[in-house]
Amino acid sequence: MNKADEKALGGLHGKLAEVLKEALSQDYIDPDTGVKLPPPAAILNVARQFLKDNKIEAVAAQGSPLADLADLPIFEDENIVPFRKSS
pLDDT tier at 20 (50, 70, 90 boundaries)? Predict the structure, then answer.
């Protein structure tokens, strides 16, 4: 790959990071109730994949939201009940 292509791809990569940061920082409000909502799942999934593709990992510092996730109970397969369609 030549330097111009690398620069163009680097710019695209940086722009995607900016767009994701903005999307994750934005306030999402339910128009019917006025309640603040988390970012849409699609945006969270793109951000997750972006971090994964770039091999970006984080250490869960005590008291951080990431550490709080690590403290959630783990569900074993035998505890999972499949959804059943009603007849």
Answer: very high
